[in-house]
Amino acid sequence: MEFTKGHGAGNDFVILPDPDGALELTPGLVAALCDRRRGIGGDGVLRVVRAAKHPEGAALAGEAEWFMDYWNADGSYAEMCGNGARVFVRYLVAAGLADPAGETLPVATRAGVVRAVVQGETIAVEMRRPRMYDTASAALGGLTLAGTAVDVGNPHLVCSLPAGLDLAALDLTRAPDVDPTVFPAGVNVEFTTPAEPVDGTDGHVLMRVYERGSAETLACGTGACAVGAVVLRDAGQDTGTVTVDVPGGRLTVTVTDDSCWLAGPAVLVATGEIAPTALQP
Ligand SMILES: N[C@@H](CCC[C@H](N)C(=O)O)C(=O)O
């Protein structure tokens, strides 16, 4: 089985080319591939399949040639992955499966069609506008933090830390506790604090994230979009640009009247062959 390994700001993926949808991808195989000791290692898997050849992509096949079949490291799948979409497009272009010269490159996902623009080392992807729909809290390490529930195609809870709490000191080795009635399908939880030293722009924050299905990751693109929307709301703005620094690098989020752009690095680092029989469940 061929694979490519790539990442977007340290959010890393095992990419599986499967144009005709012939691969039997199971939760066990995904988890084994993402195992950092016994497999390739990754926060998730991106299967590259023609939209027409995938049951969930077929309805979008007229609008996009390729479907991003995204799976979390634990073998669950998610509706959307912002960094995954950017890395997916990097792969399509590198493999000669898509032309970056076009105005925007459509990609089908479980959350609908997103559109990407390749700008050298940066790939920007246009997703739906984040929708803030509730308030909730996250409990971890004896702390209870208030947050905003945000839908970016997948679910997020954005908790802005009260003054005096150190983002770096949060224990994200286990999942924060959240109210399952607010998040029946689980949730990605983002923690933010203003960037220091204050650099003169309001829209600049630091973020850490505990991802549903993948644990703490170095970056989460949809999470950055959720954070961007909350930062703008708190500044009394509907639209604008927010810089989100994550442990793996920098993401830029631009919220417009009807969409949200996520921009940042997208890198392919290796290509190889896996012997699936050698992967341990
Ligand atoms: N890292 C991703 C989000 C991946 C999906 C997430 N873990 C979920 O289950 O919703 C991103 O860059 O958006």
From TrEMBL:
<dbReference type="GO" id="GO:0005829">
    <property type="term" value="C:cytosol"/>
</dbReference>
<feature type="binding site">
    <location>
        <position position="11"/>
    </location>
    <ligand>
        <name>substrate</name>
    </ligand>
</feature>
<feature type="active site">
    <location>
        <position position="81"/>
    </location>
</feature>
<dbReference type="Pfam" id="PF01678">
    <property type="entry name" value="DAP_epimerase"/>
</dbReference>
<feature type="active site" description="Proton acceptor">
    <location>
        <position position="220"/>
    </location>
</feature>
<comment type="subunit">
    <text>Homodimer.</text>
</comment>
<feature type="binding site">
    <location>
        <position position="188"/>
    </location>
    <ligand>
        <name>substrate</name>
    </ligand>
</feature>
<feature type="binding site">
    <location>
        <begin position="211"/>
        <end position="212"/>
    </location>
    <ligand>
        <name>substrate</name>
    </ligand>
</feature>
<dbReference type="InterPro" id="IPR001653">
    <property type="entry name" value="DAP_epimerase_DapF"/>
</dbReference>
<keyword id="KW-0963">Cytoplasm</keyword>
<dbReference type="GO" id="GO:0008837">
    <property type="term" value="F:diaminopimelate epimerase activity"/>
</dbReference>
<comment type="function">
    <text>Catalyzes the stereoinversion of LL-2,6-diaminopimelate (L,L-DAP) to meso-diaminopimelate (meso-DAP), a precursor of L-lysine and an essential component of the bacterial peptidoglycan.</text>
</comment>
<feature type="site" description="Could be important to modulate the pK values of the two catalytic cysteine residues">
    <location>
        <position position="156"/>
    </location>
</feature>
<dbReference type="GO" id="GO:0009089">
    <property type="term" value="P:lysine biosynthetic process via diaminopimelate"/>
</dbReference>
<keyword id="KW-0413">Isomerase</keyword>
<comment type="pathway">
    <text>Amino-acid biosynthesis; L-lysine biosynthesis via DAP pathway; DL-2,6-diaminopimelate from LL-2,6-diaminopimelate: step 1/1.</text>
</comment>
<protein>
    <recommendedName>
        <fullName>Diaminopimelate epimerase</fullName>
        <ecNumber>5.1.1.7</ecNumber>
    </recommendedName>
</protein>
<feature type="binding site">
    <location>
        <begin position="82"/>
        <end position="83"/>
    </location>
    <ligand>
        <name>substrate</name>
    </ligand>
</feature>
<feature type="binding site">
    <location>
        <position position="72"/>
    </location>
    <ligand>
        <name>substrate</name>
    </ligand>
</feature>
<feature type="binding site">
    <location>
        <begin position="221"/>
        <end position="222"/>
    </location>
    <ligand>
        <name>substrate</name>
    </ligand>
</feature>
<feature type="active site" description="Proton donor">
    <location>
        <position position="81"/>
    </location>
</feature>
<feature type="binding site">
    <location>
        <position position="154"/>
    </location>
    <ligand>
        <name>substrate</name>
    </ligand>
</feature>
<keyword id="KW-0028">Amino-acid biosynthesis</keyword>
<dbReference type="InterPro" id="IPR018510">
    <property type="entry name" value="DAP_epimerase_AS"/>
</dbReference>
<keyword id="KW-0457">Lysine biosynthesis</keyword>
<comment type="similarity">
    <text>Belongs to the diaminopimelate epimerase family.</text>
</comment>
<feature type="site" description="Could be important to modulate the pK values of the two catalytic cysteine residues">
    <location>
        <position position="211"/>
    </location>
</feature>
